[in-house]
Amino acid sequence: MRNLFSFIGVLLASTLAACGGSTTSGTDNGVHLCSTDKDCPLGMFCNDGICEEQPDAGPECKSDTDCPAGKHCDILAGKCVANPDGGEEPADGGDAGTDGGQDAGGDTECAVEQVRDCGLTKVGECEIGVERCVDGRWSGVCEGAVYPEDEKCDGKDNDCDGETPADELDQDGDGVSPCQGDCDDSDLEVHPGASEITCNGKDDDCERSTPDGPDLDGDGYSSCGGDCDDNNPEVHPNAIEVSCNQLDDDCDPRTTDNPDQDGDGVTLCAGDCDDNDPERFPGNTEFSCDGKDNDCLTDTRDDPDPTDADGDGYTRGCGGDCDDLNRDVNPGASEIQCNGIDDDCRSATPDDPDGRDQDNDGFTVGCGRDCNDQNPAINPSRQEITCNGWNDDCNDQTPDDPPDGDGDSYTICGGDCDDANSAVNPGATEVPCNGRDDDCNTNTPEGPDLDHDGASSCGGDCNDNDPEVFPGHPEVCDGKDNNCDNQYLPGEVDGDNDGYMVCNGDCDDTDPNIHPTASERCNGLDDNCDNNVPANEADNDNDGYRLCNGDCRDNDPQIFPGAAERCNGLDDDCDLVVPAN
After folding, report:
1. Is the pTM of this model over 0.70?
2. 3-class secondary structure for 318-365?
């Protein structure tokens, strides 16, 4: 829209110039000063005395004088266009842009009686006007032109943008558009000036001050809004129902004026003194000490004996005061244990909190303060026995652990095995071979234990480099004196040095080739000590040869490898050949 008014400004400036309007212009540090747009260069307009750029760069020309030789100004387009004949001047009889022209013989812009179109557009309410030639110059006055203006809510396209605003349309045909105040343009009967129709749910006259229904009593509710008594401002929907006033205060028949909320058969209006309690109503029996006026009569007492002699707030009757002469004794007091008084007047809270005496030692767990009711030797009458782990006399002031006798911070009960020697205690370091248990730990060896078998050399370890040798170790068949008693198992000797002893399976400790892992040889012996000689190692004919070393008939002593062949048809020398002869 700003561009539109900028263009109108350009036209007005041109008009002033044509009418001889004066201009004042100049520059101030590069800023163009002006009185009108005419004072500004092309593409700029005058804004408060300073030339500024047109938002859309403005028109290229305002008149033919703004155009170079061979061109003239098309005032409608604001652009310089070529002359029709291609010459330096516009052709006679033509206008500068439409039907004007410049006299070839003088300094004139147009011919007498010439006119040309002016204005902006013919869209909407806008119209194109005409500019007349006066004394050889265009007048600068656009006669009959209608320019865009703000929309007027008249159902017309006043701003000439080709559209009529939606709020200017009268959709329901009632003669009033939304911009004229029609609050429902889809309803023919709703518009300003219409009569308000009561209780139809419509704002017929589009005036909020005229309610849909009357509110005669001014309580904010009309009869068509649910007010069941529009003459009483105390009666309307959402009012609180007041019982027994014979009015439907909240206009809701579901909330009765004469309720019987507790269903005891007596309504509130009939004298029920508590309509939320079915045990309270006129005619009911008074029940003592329930804290209620059961019969709704104040002269029938709930407490049969209201005496409170000690002023502790508890009566002898319903108050339950079991000693009305002692204000410290009443049902609200706390039971003080072991004082011999029923402080809270409740037998269920005994004076002795724990009367058990399961060990029958004459002392209860509670006031008897028996700290171990399973042991008759433990009770407050006993003497404390040190280091037995028991509080014999049930007195924490008599310690079970005697004081530290040697000042080493360890007591006897704390593990000090010599409380007369400060160098001996559980925190001391064991000194090797001094004949003393310095750290009071029998698991710490007396001397160094190089093989970590639990025994030191001064403790009898006969080989402190072998963890399998120490006193108490079971004797095993390994050739060692495992228990350091200088005794070995029978057969714990390796006579042939083959790594095996008789006790671990060597069946011939005189032959190093015979032991449990040896290979069987063809010698007729049990080389691997498995109590089995292979069958092919037998020499049944005692000829010195076995099946395993070539005897091909072990039941004939004359047949064996190397025997002389005899003329008997047999292979006497076991070479697998019988002589042909």
Report:
1. no
2. CCCCCCCCCCCCCCCCCCCCCCCCCCCCCCCCCCCCCCCCCCCCCCCC
